[in-house]
Write a structure and sequence with these properties.
Blueprint lengths: L3 E7 L6 H14 L7 E7 L6 H7 L3 E4 L5 H11 L4 E4 L10 H9 L4 E5 L2 E3 L4 H17 L6 E4 H6 L11 H14 L4 E4 L5 E3 L2 H6 L3 H14 L1 H13 L4
Parallel strand pairs: 1-2, 1-4, 2-3, 5-8, 6-9
Antiparallel strand pairs: 4-7, 5-7
Helix pairs in contact: 9-10
Length: 242
């Protein structure tokens, strides 16, 4: 029985998935409990570029989810997982070699309900650095971070997993719900900063290194206007050119 289940939601990720799986292989080999104690699940969202076959050829367990909501795709992977600890990472990321050792050590602590590894960017520029800096105070205040997100299966199930209806920001809500549950019995979110992931900059490559600044200015309009919100979600997440 695996100790940790790593779940990777995918939609047409054949270009990025191999480098993530290479980093996962290294982290599994470094895991003190043994590589076989980590199962890797690719939750495929009806990809058309061979993502599922690529994952299967690599030895991953592949599950299918046809619902075009990222939270639902994450939940589909979690439903198939056998590990007592669930971990989630985006397919265009790369993980640190000590990821599983750090997560297992944190989840052995009774005061920790879950958390995230945090991340560094695969490239830097003035615009990316400013965007990154904008989020630092929020991360410090809430302990809600990017990278590999992890928790115990029991807590995942208790909060209902990810919100399968949200088009975006489901990862923020998930950590918020986990944080709120932890407060009931004195547990808290933790940051696994010793195992930061490497986050992709493909959104910056596509939309520009300063695009977050203009995107934030439009958020009130997206919040008020359903059609604008749908168009934004489609452009940014659900109908990318890949």
């Amino acid at each position: 029985m695996p100790v940790i289940s790593l779940i990777i939601p995918c939609y047409n990720e054949a270009a990025f998935l191999p480098r993530l799986l290479t980093s996962v292989d290294a982290a599994r080999r470094a895991f003190a409990a043994g590589a076989e104690s980590v199962e890797v699940i690719v939750s495929d969202n009806a990809s058309t570029d061979g993502t599922a076959q690529l994952a299967a050829d690599h030895g991953c367990r592949v599950v299918s989810s046809t619902v075009r909501r990222i939270g639902a795709v994450r939940n589909a992977g979690a439903a198939a997982a056998r590990g007592g600890i669930l971990a989630f990472i985006d397919a265009d990321s790369q993980i640190h070699v000590e990821t599983f050792n750090v997560i297992a050590a944190l989840m052995a602590r009774p005061d920790a309900i879950g958390g995230a590894t945090g991340g560094t960017m695969e490239r830097w520029s003035a615009g990316i650095a400013l965007t990154y800096a904008m989020f630092v105070p929020i991360v410090w205040a809430t302990k809600m971070d990017i990278g590999v997100v992890f928790c115990r299966r029991a807590d995942f199930e208790a909060i209902g997993g990810y919100d399968g209806d949200m088009q975006f920001a489901e990862d923020v809500k998930f950590l918020w719900d986990l944080r709120r549950r932890g407060r009931l019995d004195g547990r808290r979110l933790v940051r696994a900063r010793a195992a930061k992931a490497i986050a992709s900059t493909r959104k910056f490559d596509q939309f520009g290194d300063w695009h977050y600044l203009t995107m934030f200015l439009k958020l009130p309009w997206h919040a008020l206007n359903r059609r604008a919100r749908q168009a934004f979600a489609d452009q940014y997440w659900y109908k990318p050119d890949r």
